[in-house]
Write a structure and sequence with these properties.
Elements: H1 2-33, H2 35-88, H3 97-115, E1 124-129, E2 138-140, H4 148-155, E3 160-167, E4 172-182, E5 189-196, H5 198-248, H6 263-319, H7 326-357, E6 365-368, H8 369-379, H9 381-386, E7 391-394, E8 401-404, H10 406-422, E9 429-435, E10 439-446, H11 455-458, E11 471-472, H12 480-490, E12 494-500, E13 504-512, H13 534-540, E14 554-556, E15 567-568
Parallel strand pairs: 7-9
Antiparallel strand pairs: 1-2, 1-5, 3-4, 4-5, 6-8, 7-14, 9-10, 10-13, 11-15, 12-13
Helix pairs in contact: 2-3, 2-5, 5-6, 6-7, 7-12, 8-10, 10-12
């Protein structure tokens, strides 16, 4: 029963809790985002604290002064009352003690009404005679309203007062009760005067209300002043922020308006000077970049015609090299080799210029990427066999259909596999493929020299070389990986690298299965020493579908290479 009640309470309070959490998040977001809100709220908080302290001090001072004045006047009234009581009580033998006390009390009350208490206001009087042996205790007035502690002081012969809440026939509320022993023919006579504090309470309430009203008005004025001051500071800052954002978006003509000669005006002048300088630099860089791309494209196109003529003449000489002496035969072979490399470099320059100009396009087809990987392996068989390197394939048996440009994907993989073979140090090169519901990944792993920390980013730079003195066997141009990463981005995929000195390197290509989708995760890990992701485990570790065979590594080797293309270069080269 108790648990069900708790669950009902929790269910009913859940919307309220969610609403409070949403409100707290909104308030926190506004507090962090708005400088104006922080300034105004901080100013209000500090002003409220100061006003509360001042109000408390002022109220305490006024209350103390009013009560002190009331006490002084009440003490003076007590002195006059003692004289009256000394003369009236016990003055005639024929009157009883009760009658004497009542007569003295009435005379005090009549004097209070007639003279307005001598400045102390109206009051009530209590006369007490404690019991003594055969004499019973006698009193006149509301004796039960006299506080006990006050009576103890009066019995000790002291004039004392106490603030207490009393209830009489004519008054009910807080009052000042002052007591004093009185000398008369009746021994141990005690006199008490009860002064109502209603007028003093009204005065104190009026003072408090005035202070509260003044404090609220002052807070509103301070909030308005803080809002105005913060607005004068925040508005130019917001304007500068908007202009800076538009400038960052490419609107290089944006400038801040300059008004006056104050600090904000100097900020606007400095910002405009900086924007003008940046605009000039960016314009110059764009012009230099366009000039460079146009120069590369024009030179590449202009070299096509003479290169075609030279190629025709070189092929003619190469085909008839048997008629030449051995030295000229070797020269003809070297010329054809270098012409092959020159044509490759020229093609790469044209391709990279298309990427730079943003005119590269995809010829998308639905292809089985396993066939693409097998074609790449077949194209580098001669290189693997020459360097005594084994290429291991680890691919699923089920076809992996992706919407890609087969020429560009094959070029990416050929560059990666050729680079891996060239840097493998005669150790096996492993090619793995895996797919999930969104993307497909291919990794190429060698176990050669590896990459030093930071080189996994530099390896995609144009003409970058890890070891300039290293001899290459694949005849790279230094642009292969730069073109490959652009081809991967054109597919909205990713090409990434990992490496450790002495542990080899791994390159991972991830492309979406459907054109237009963006790659967010990869089915295969980039670091081969780490555990694969859950998507990769589902793609590679699950059992085969019914009717499928399990995936097994496949080794391949090839025939000897006919012609070796030698050049120095690092991993930035390619085999295209």
């Amino acid at each position: 029963m108790i648990f069900s009640s708790k669950r009902r309470i929790q269910r009913r309070s859940a919307p309220l809790i969610r609403g409070l959490k949403a409100l707290s998040r909104a308030v926190g977001f506004t507090w962090r985002r708005s400088l104006q809100v922080r300034v105004v709220v901080s100013n209000l908080a500090l002003s409220s604290l100061v006003i509360l302290i001042l109000g408390f001090v002022l109220t305490s001072q006024v209350t103390d002064r009013i009560l002190e004045s009331k006490t002084r006047v009440a003490t003076e009234e007590m002195e006059r009352a003692r004289v009256i009581v000394s003369d009236d009580v016990g003055g005639e033998e024929t009157r009883s003690l009760q009658s004497s006390l009542e007569l003295a009390r009435n005379q005090l009350l009549n004097g209070s009404k007639g003279s307005d208490g001598g400045g102390a206001g109206a009051f009530d009087a209590v006369l007490l005679v404690p019991g003594d042996g055969p004499r019973e205790a006698t009193s006149a007035g509301p004796a039960t309203q006299v506080p006990g502690p006050l009576r103890e002081f009066v019995k000790a012969g002291q004039v004392s007062y106490q603030y207490s809440t009393v209830h009489t026939e004519n008054f009910s509320g807080k009052a000042l009760v002052i007591g004093s022993p009185t000398t008369s023919k009746v021994t141990a006579l005690e006199l008490y005067l009860v002064f109502p504090l209603s007028s003093e309470e009204s005065t104190i309430s009026l003072v408090r209300g005035t202070i509260v009203t003044g404090g609220v008005v002052l807070l509103v004025l301070l909030a308005a002043v803080a809002l105005l001051v913060a607005r004068q500071v925040v508005l130019p800052v917001r304007s500068a922020s908007r202009i800076a954002e538009r400038f960052a978006e490419g609107h290089l003509s944006e400038r801040m308006p300059v008004r006056g000669v104050d600090d904000m005006a100097r900020l606007a002048v400095s910002f405009n000077d900086m924007a003008e300088s940046l605009s000039r630099e960016i314009t110059q860089l764009e012009e230099f970049g366009n000039l460079q791309r146009r120069f590369t494209s024009d030179v590449s196109h202009e070299l096509r015609t003479p290169l075609t003529t030279v190629r025709m003449a070189a092929d003619l000489i190469y085909d008839n090299r048997e008629e030449l002496d051995p030295a000229l035969q070797r020269s003809a072979e070297l010329m054809v080799n270098e012409l092959d490399r020159f044509e490759t470099l020229l093609s790469d320059l044209l391709e990279i210029s298309r990427h730079d100009a943003g005119v590269a396009e995809l010829a998308v087809e639905q292809v089985d990427l396993r066939d693409t990987v097998k074609a790449v392996v077949a194209s580098v068989k001669h290189l693997a066999d020459e360097l005594d390197t084994t290429v291991e394939l680890d691919m699923p048996d089920k076809e992996i259909i992706a919407e890609v440009d087969p020429r560009r994907v094959e070029r990416i993989l050929r560059n990666l596999v050729a680079n891996a073979i060239d840097h493998s140090e005669h150790k096996p090169v492993t090619i793995r493929m895996a797919a999930d519901i969104d993307s497909v990944a291919v990794t190429v792993r060698d176990r050669g020299v590896g990459l030093r920390p930071g080189e996994e980013k530099l390896v995609f730079n144009r003409f970058w070389r890890a070891d300039p003195s290293r001899k290459r066997h694949s005849g790279g141009t230094g642009l292969g990986l730069a073109i490959s990463v652009e081809d991967a981005r054109l597919h909205q995929g990713r090409l990434e690298a990992w490496g450790e000195p002495g542990n080899g390197a791994l390159f991972r290509l991830t492309v979406p299965l459907v054109r237009g989708h963006k790659v967010t995760t990869s089915p295969l890990p980039l670091n081969p020493t780490s555990r694969p992701s859950s998507a990769a485990r589902r793609a590679t570790s699950r059992g085969p579908h019914p009717g499928e065979q399990e995936t097994t590594p496949m080794r391949t080797s090839g025939a000897k290479i006919e012609r070796v293309r030698e050049s120095s270069g690092g991993r930035a080269g390619d085999a295209s």
